[in-house]
Design goal:
CATH architecture: Alpha-Beta Complex
Shape: globular
Helix content: 10-25%
Distance between the termini: 63 Å
Radius of gyration: 17 Å
Low-confidence stretches: none
CATH class: Alpha Beta
Number of domains: 1
Order of helices and strands: HEEHEEEEEHEEEEE
Strand order of the largest sheet: 3-6-7-8-9-10
Number of strands: 12
CATH superfamily: tt1808, chain A
Largest sheet: 6 strands, mixed
């Protein structure tokens, strides 16, 4: 007896922009970003963005900006909405279509596997210089930095405290990541 072939739809950015609510698209497969993140997740997200924005101000870098929930279009069928990112070049479209300098994903039970694996590899391929994974339950931050070979190396885990992010040859941000829990 012949077995039925399952055909999954394959979506693109053009489909994605028509949808209501928050979504991510990974190789044509949609992922709902609902329900909304928990209050602790949101609070940590705001604290991280504030800490990084203050670091950018101290470094007097007007070209670097902190964003939250910005569409990062990796390719026509893959769009992420990182929790927090830093971009040091002008964004000329309705979405980001080049690698940001830094991406932060705040882990939740529903997204941890995707953040630690799928997104990790996509961000590494895109050459995002820093990728941070924040665990709000354990109050830890894993800081991954892209090395010369194009692979992420864990720089610090647990509570890294003060950390220097060398975004480019002219920009070093000094941040105290312990401040995000207060």
């Amino acid at each position: 007896m012949a077995e039925a072939i399952k055909i999954l739809p394959h979506y693109t950015y053009e489909d994605y922009v028509q949808w209501e609510g928050r979504w991510e698209l990974i190789e044509g497969i949609p992922y709902a970003m609902s329900p909304a993140p928990t209050p602790k997740h949101q609070w940590i997200c705001i604290n991280i963005a504030s800490e990084l924005r203050n670091s950018i101000k101290k470094a007097a870098r007007k070209d670097c900006k902190v964003y939250s929930f910005l569409d990062y279009k990796i390719k026509g069928d893959t769009i992420f909405q990182p929790d927090v990112l830093i971009v040091c070049k002008p964004i000329t479209k309705k979405f980001l279509d080049f690698a940001p300098s830094l991406v932060i994903e705040i882990l939740s039970p529903a997204t941890a596997l995707k953040d630690r694996n799928t997104k990790f590899h996509f961000y590494q391929q895109q050459k995002v210089k820093y990728y941070l994974l924040v665990d709000t339950d354990k109050e830890t931050v894993e800081v991954y930095q892209l090395d010369k070979d194009g692979t992420y190396q864990l720089q610090q885990a647990k509570s890294p405290g003060k950390f220097i992010f060398n975004l480019d040859e002219n920009c070093s941000l000094r941040s105290n990541l312990n401040e995000i829990w207060k």
